[in-house]
Amino acid sequence: MYGPAALVHSGPLSLGVLIVLVLMEFSSLFIILVKLWDQFRLGASYRAVEKNFWTSASLKDGVERLKKGDAYRAIVEEGLRAQAHHDGRLTDRIDLNEWITMSLPRSVASVNLDLQSGLGWLASVGSTAPFVGLFGTVVGIIKALISIGVSGQPSIDRVAGPVGEALQMTAIGLIVAVPAVLGYNWLVGRNKNLQEDLRNFAADVHAYLIGGARVGGDGGRPVVTPAIAVRK
């Protein structure tokens, strides 16, 4: 038996390597699809924020327009909690601006951590899958050479078939690694844009909590929104 089907009958060690590679392939594809869905939802949330949130009467009203569990809603709620908690005795010595500055980045960092989750596995698959496949190839070649030595007939047909089958493991390792590497680089690039949107939104919320206006991109001048400034 020749071809990929022969790998199933090539021994427990080679079969174990093949199973590992298959699991790595399916897990990396699953992570890519899940992270793409997460990025799509976060992008949709940002568009909803730009359309509905900043036209609200106040930040609290704007929060109600966002879905529960939404990342942008969590950032605003963290800012509002920081502002309300500033009245407590534990923060009397901390300026409101500084207190909010310490609070909002924690919420942004939590969202960024969720975005980054799973990417480490993709990087690991991309870097290790070729070596796992190479290990399977080495095992297959060793077995082929031992079989040839035992038979005592080192003809080309006895060498080419087993060695060719063993080299399929290297090819499978590359097939597993390439999508993982491409998916990792693609997701990281998309994450950078989403993280920039999060940072800009957090900066706008911070400016609004302190000065009653969000910061726009027109030369850094504040852009006054229709919302009513909350208590400072």
Q: TL;DR of this structure?
A:
By secondary structure, the chain is mainly α. It has one domain. The protein is 74% helix and 2% strand.
Low-confidence stretches: 217-232
- End-to-end separation: 78 Å
Q: What is the domain tally?
A: 1
Largest sheet: 2 strands, antiparallel
Tell me the quaternary state.
single chain
What is the rounded Rg? 28 Å
The total beta strand count reads 2
N-to-C series of helices and strands: HHHHHHEE
Q: Which of globular, elongated, flat, extended, rod-shaped describes the shape?
A: rod-shaped
Class by SSE composition: mainly alpha
Which percent bin holds the helix content?
Answer: over 70%
Strand content: under 5%
Mean pLDDT, as a whole number? 78
| Tally of helical runs | 6
Order of strands in the sheet with most strands: 1-2
Structure, described:
This protein has 232 residues and is mostly helical. It is built from 6 helices and 2 strands; from the N terminus they run ααααααββ. It has helices spanning 12-52, 59-64, 71-85, 96-116, 119-151, 156-211, and strands at residues 214-215, 222-223. Strands 1-2 form a two-stranded antiparallel sheet. The longest helix has 56 residues, at 156-211.
